[in-house]
Amino acid sequence: MDVNQKSPVEPFPGSVHPSPGGGILVSKLDDVINWARSNSLWPLVFGTSCCAIEMMSAASAKYDWSRFGFEVARATPRQADVIIIAGTIVNKMAPVLKRLYDQMAEPRYVIAMGACATSGGPFFYNTYSVVKGADHVIPVDVYVAGCPPRPEALMHALITLQAKIKDGGLREKIMIDEQKVVGKK
Amino acid sequence: MTKEELKESILNQYPESVFEETGEWLTLQVEPEAFLSMAMEFRSRDAWDFDFLFCLTCVDWKTHFTMVYFLRSLTHRHMLTIKVKLDRNNPEIETVNEIWRTADFNEREVYDLFGVKFLHHHDLRRILLTDDWIGWPLRKDYDDPVNMIKL
After folding, report:
1. Chain A positions in Cβ-Cβ contact with residue B137 (cut-off 8 Å)
2. Exposed, middle or buried: residue B58 (CB in 10 Å: 0-12, 13-18, 19+)?
3. Kind plus residue range of the DSSP H or E element containing B83
4. What is the ipTM of this complex?
5. A73-90 pLDDT per residue, tens
6. Inter-chain touch A126–B129, beta carbons under 8 Å
7. Which residues of chain B neighbour A121 with C-beta distances below 8 Å?
8. Cβ contact A76:A38 at 8 Å
């Protein structure tokens, strides 16, 4: 499953223009900014239920997501880039999730990890208290299947998100274009 | 005391008690009216000394409710299960909050999810659901067309 045909692990964007005394790196500013953003996404600590255990094991020594830049897991949404919804969202938790998402600064991304955050999961039928999918509350970028997904699956989702950001990140692109049209930045 | 000794000593005190033969622990069936006095006796008598109520739940058989109390003695290390049958239309039972304090939150949970009224409980209100929730979700005939998608 590839977002685009390019490999997500690629050298610094741009080309080197040869000149005496080394070279000049010529690139687009958007590409450089996207490269920088995608390689240092700081996740928000948001584990509600069992998927949080798999997220913790993806963060710890054996699978180690800090190789990809997710080193600093911030406890405050004001300093976080990506929120990994690891676990079930119940009706009582939905306004809390919305508030945390609103407090994050742009550009912000959302990964819905596991079956419960994707669609309500095992609690889709006959449950009075579970929100049937986190995308009823906030817009989601990447969905991960699994109950719980293995740590490798979560890493694959993170790498997919990185590829999405390097590609422009579709939601972001729309917003940036609008801002260009209006004249604000 | 072993299971048989416990059964004998309970039969000595309450000759017409009914035991269930299922499970690894001794299971006693009690009427709701006699329940409170028997519970106080189980707590206070030295030979039994059940000072730890480690679980309190309710089961909804479609014709009636059954309250299940799991008791353990930390000094004698024996265990007892008490089952009390309640009427479905008006489920009421005395609280054991004064005898075992752990019953406080557990009884609030049973009230919240089943609607069983615990008489003389000092603060019986919902604990898990929001305070303005209508209905008792864990009953078998609970229906919530807004939230539940029926399979």
Report:
1. 128-129
2. buried
3. strand B79-87
4. 0.73
5. 888 999 998 999 999 999
6. no
7. none
8. no
